[in-house]
Amino acid sequence: MATIPQTGIKPSISIAILGSGGSGVMTTGSLLLDVAGRAGWYGMMTRSAGPQIRGGEAAALLRLSPQPTETHKDHFDVLLALDWLNADRFVSEVDLNAQSLVIGDEGKVMPGAIAGLSGNHFELPLSGTAKSIKGGRINMVALGALAAMIGLTLEDVIKVLTQSLQRKGPEAINASISGIQAGSHIVDSLPALPTIGAAQATGRNRWSITGNEATGLGAIRGGIRFVAAYPITPATEVLEWMAPTLQKVGGVLVQAEDELASINHLIGSSFGGTPSMTATSGPGLSLMTESIGLAVASETPLVIVDVMRGGPSTGIPTKSEQSDLNIALYGLHGDAPHLVVAPNSVGDCVFTTQWATHLAETLQTACIMLSDQFMGQTRAIIDRPADIAFVSGGRQLASKPDVYFRYAVNDSGISPMSLPGTPDGQYTGDGLEHSPSGTPSSRADDHIQQLDKRKRKLDQFNYGDHWALTEGSGEMAVITWGSSTGAVQEALATLRAQGQEVRLVSLRLLSPIQPERLQRALQGVRRILVVEQCHGAQFYHYLRAFYQLPGVVKSMAIPGPLMIKPSDIYHELQSWESV
Amino acid sequence: MMETATSCTPMKPKDYKSGVKPVWCPGCGDFSVLMALTKALAEMRLAAEQVALISGIGCSSRLPAYLNVYGFHSVHGRALPVATGLKIARPDLTVLAAGGDGDGFSIGGNHFMHSCRRNVDITYIVMDNQVYGMTKGQASPTTDPDWDHSKLTPGGTKVNPYYPLVIALASGANFIARASSSDPNGAAKVIVDAIRHPGFSFVHILSPCITFRPEQRDWKKMVRPAPVEATSNPVTAAHRLMTDDNFFLGTLYKGNRPPYQPDLTPVIDDLSSIEKDFEL
Ligand SMILES: Cc1ncc(C[n+]2csc(CCOP(=O)(O)OP(=O)(O)O)c2C)c(N)n1
Ligand code: SF4
Is pLDDT above 90 for A578? Predict the structure, then answer.
């Protein structure tokens, strides 16, 4: 059975596959992930690429484990390079330790930056083996070698390969199989990787999915049938997955001329009654903010997914950061209460997007969902996310209005919507302040009533347990959000395994604030670490502004683009404890 | 235009009025545009609940509140994208968009081009007064370069105006017409024509701002029917529109490009086949 080196409390093996563009690094990585998944493991793969559109260097970064995993650990057990071209670019992303195996192609000179890294250096006849096979490719030889090193069976590899290369025809498949077989024989000289536990039994309903795909699926499950968007890294894959899927379910994706158009397309389609969404990243969200305010004022439901990347301006488009929190919370002009939510894992993107849709539709307002590049572009092996039905919900429609008041003021703050086509339900949706009937009004009482109404409907709604992910007990707590959650969870699991009690609160609902719920979750807590991937500590400042936090509070605000490591959090908590 | 429900009882223009009193200055050209629009809807016997009128921001963009059809008063420059989203999601409705020259050609200029290009079946009415009325009289993209009455552009803009009909043709609009608020009956006829014609229909209406451009009262003496029938040949249309003095009225171009309307029929009724793709 497969073996994994034991690290921390989560046994796992981490593999970095490097190579220049076109060498097939990503194919090798995703096939290896799927084979491991088939064999009963969990795992994840992130991609790293240089700024070139084509032909640049690339890295597939994998972690495999018998347990679900969505964060990289401190070091890679194996670094395998198909070639060394520009591989030194990845030095800061691929940490190694003394036991790590660094493997290159026979006879090729390792760049100085890599040669200087710790680890045991080896050469394998990768290109030589590929050349000896008709149509042989170096990345298939590497796949065979890696699979053999971690104990995956040749049958499993061939099964996955045959399935995914189906379209390329038997010749390509046979050449690949020969490459994999040959690759599996060239690793005998390498030291064995340390052993770990066996893979879990297969047969459970498990998925291989990226956060961006999961976001699309959550939207479709939630009833989104209209998407308008403008392409932007790293949100484009949400759109790429949704465009053909929407066609199947009777919806449509419109590629707009810009984000000003896309957000307003949504307002039109949603006014017409179709649950509507867009996906963008920080620069696009900035362009949309005026009309998100229009959605708030006119009480038009819509969902805006921001797959965050490094900013400001064009920033680092291919790398992750949690630094759009401020604009999501405060970017709208005027008093514009709206919803801001954040998924905390790849799998949770399904739930949170579905929930975001439900909230937007029920509360007739804009809901911004903050995902990020790391979560969005990570492919993970996960258990199939449960089907969630939001029973009481969806948009409240005006049926047979006597005298219809679109913005009627009532206790819930939610006034039924009349859809175009409904006789006697005509009204004008308006971003100008209005009277309950929708007629423009600059009267003080109308303004105050409508401001109250728009806030009340959000404040009074029962968000249930979904507001946060809470785990553990003890007088020490970590508060975090979004994709930082995975690293925190792993750090806390290590502490708990050492007998230290510690709590996790990962906020899924960022706006409206939930002060009573958080207070309850932090009852008895005396020390709090606030973890986020943001140089300006936006999340920490948000917590400070709106919540009473008990005891001593420390901020751990780490800027992108490098991911937060579980060990950084672990050491922060441990050293804090020992003083 | 796709089939939408029509009323069997004869409709009168006033049946389409909401009763809300317009905020416009007495004598503003936009009153006649409102009248022309209600006449057009009555002539077509469209059921009021089957029509949606979308606008941006400006004096002219106040229009939706004065009609009893479905309306949406959006933000400055965004009438067209809102209307486009609505029509794509609800092809059963008759969707109209309206606004001013600043709204449509300046802040919303990019949407104007792309809406012409996309050719969704909507009718866009621009009330052109060659000025920003609502913000009290600044130059717009259609203002002449020597108009020097705005404090923002002392001595005039010194920038050539923009020719919206030419841009519309070049960008792919499927129907192009000009009307004048001084002739509401003629304008109503053009609007009916525009709504009936499939695809993106652009109706340019000369609608004087009597407060900031009182000299535009003279427009009624300068307008005259175009001497020739509408053409469907874009080359002929280009020649005519390029040499047009901005005062020829009537339908000037009727293209035959098919409108953009995606098919919204589902081909599956549950998500299991979609989710299967994720299974290992
Ligand atoms: C983003 C934004 N910028 C500026 C304004 C201010 N503004 C309101 S209406 C308007 C111009 C209106 O001119 P036009 O569209 O020609 O309409 P008119 O009032 O002449 O009918 C401007 C600049 C605004 N409402 N929103
Ligand atoms: S300012 Fe000009 S455009 Fe505005 S209402 Fe008065 S006359 Fe009409």
Answer: no
